[in-house]
Design a protein that fits this description.
Belongs to the FGGY kinase family. By secondary structure, the chain is α+β, with helices and mostly antiparallel strands. The protein has helices at residues 49-64, 105-114, 118-125, 136-145, 147-152, 159-168, 175-178, 194-198, 231-242, 269-273, 294-309, 323-326, 344-364, 385-394, 408-416, 418-421; strands at residues 3-11, 16-22, 27-33, 38-39, 45-46, 69-78, 83-87, 153-158, 185-186, 191-192, 214-216, 224-226, 229-230, 247-252, 256-260, 277-280, 286-292, 374-379, 399-403, 433-436, 441-443. The protein contains 16 helices and 21 strands.
Length: 444
């Protein structure tokens, strides 16, 4: 008999994954791919939207054809700050522009001059000034710099909602995407910021749909489709289901994001200037967050280390916590001259030491609510013993745990629509934890 499952697409900048979860939220199938970036119409690197779309549809079809599984529902979790702009023929009219694409300085000055100045505007939108990482600014840029393309846009969908629409053929916006440093949401008024109306941006956005809502599939009878979620907000869901005591989640990947859902303190100007922001949960509640580009930096540096020391790229995975290497004199990783390190192991340990130093500074920005008693770490760095031990040493008064399951965003997307597809009670023990004391760890 076919097993009832939910299909989740969990799409990161580097890895694109399809999971099938059973009714107990065990992973029963996992597929993964990486897609080479292409060049956009300005010569900047960007996601290959055509290849991504093709993989999503093909991998789903393969899973759906298996006699072992009965796919009851599908949902999506992807990286944020990325729009797919569809024309009136329902085809993309632009590339999937990279959120790291440079934003024109003259347009930035004009925008903030017209709408109250950087500090005031950022306070209302809980969004530091981040250029194209403020995804609403991409629409502003298209209107003013590529007006012919802008006029061709019928609807602009954040990436999770675009992927979801491939299965539902319905277009929606969701609050987790609109509420993640887009410059579009006025947190004080809990509505779109006025500028989006004045600039004709609002009319390009699809109607809002609740993050826990579902709609029918367009071509799979009896399959339900979620709306899609921003991955950072999705990653919180299993923890909010499982733990009642205040905690902070450090979600690690390309970005390492510290999320504190247990503080009501509004963002200060200083916090905004240091890159703090607010996300919104799928229930519409604000979550204070800080961000670091640590996963990207880690990827870049392990390539350098592999070349310099003539080691495989994944050699770092075999290196454990070594107190002697941690105690090596020096407070920073030497990025320019690796010859100062005698061994790969020493250099890598110092790299992680530098990344953790930055992480502690970033996390403390949102740890201003001392009710927090636990830090949970999920994603790639949760499996890194050096990172976890150093983080635990840096927060001796807080319990630091690595989440044994590193698929929180995918699991969160599944749990968000639990009531619509799953006949079993919602589990509250889906997260196995490993406790770190600063020099050791214990499974709990």
């Amino acid at each position: 008999m076919a097993k009832p499952v939910i299909a989740i697409f969990d799409i990161g900048k580097t890895n694109k994954k399809l999971f099938l979860f059973d009714e107990r939220y065990n992973i029963v199938l996992e597929q993964s791919t990486q897609i080479e970036e292409i060049i956009d119409d300005d010569g900047d690197s960007c996601e290959d939207l055509h290849a991504l779309t093709k993989w999503v549809l093909a991998s789903f079809q393969e899973a759906n054809n298996s006699p072992s599984f009965d796919i009851k529902a599908i949902n999506v979790s992807t990286y944020g700050a990325s729009f797919v702009h569809l024309g009136y023929d329902e085809k993309p009219v632009t590339d999937l522009y990279n959120y790291l694409k440079p934003f024109p300085e003259s347009l930035k000055r004009k925008f903030y001059s017209d709408y109250g100045g950087e500090s005031v505007f950022s306070m209302f939108t809980a969004s530091p000034v981040l250029g194209n990482l403020n995804s609403g600014m991409q629409l502003y840029w298209l209107k003013h710099a590529k007006s012919a393309l802008f006029k061709k846009i019928n609807v602009s969908l954040h990436l999770p909602q675009y992927i979801a629409s491939l299965f539902s053929k319905r277009y929606y916006s969701d609050i987790t995407s609109i509420g993640c440093h887009t410059n579009l949401w006025n947190f004080a008024q809990n509505s779109y910021h006025d500028w989006s109306e004045k600039e004709g941006i609002r009319e390009k956005l699809a109607p809002m749909k609740a993050g826990d809502a579902v709609v029918p599939s367009s071509n799979e009878e009896n399959m339900l489709c979620g709306i899609g979620l921003h991955d950072s907000s999705a990653a919180l869901i299993p923890y909010l289901v499982s733990f009642n005591e205040p905690f902070l989640l450090l979600s690690t990947g390309t970005w390492c994001i510290s999320l504190n859902p247990f503080t009501d303190d509004p963002l200060t100007v200083e916090e905004l200037e240091k890159g703090c922001l607010c996300y919104l949960t799928y229930k519409g509640n604000p979550v204070k967050a800080s961000r670091l580009f640590s996963g990207y930096e880690h990827e870049k540096q392990i390539n350098r280390l592999a070349d310099h020391f003539q080691k495989p790229k994944d050699h770092y995975e075999s290196i454990g916590y070594n107190a002697t290497l941690v105690a090596y004199p020096g407070n920073y990783f030497e990025q320019h001259d690796l010859s100062v390190y005698e061994t790969y192991e020493l250099a890598y340990t110092q790299l992680i030491k530098a990344l953790v130093d930055d992480q502690v500074t970033s996390t403390k920005l949102v740890l201003n609510n001392m009710q927090v008693k636990r830090i949970f770490v999920d994603g790639g760095f949760s499996k890194n013993a050096i990172f976890m031990n150093l983080l635990a040493k840096a927060f001796p008064s807080i319990e630091v745990y690595a989440a044994a399951m590193a698929q929180a965003s995918a699991l969160g997307a599944a749990m968000a629509i639990h009531q619509h597809w799953n006949k079993q009670p919602l589990e509250s023990d889906v997260i196995a934890l490993r406790y770190y004391t600063g020099a050791s760890s214990m499974v709990s």
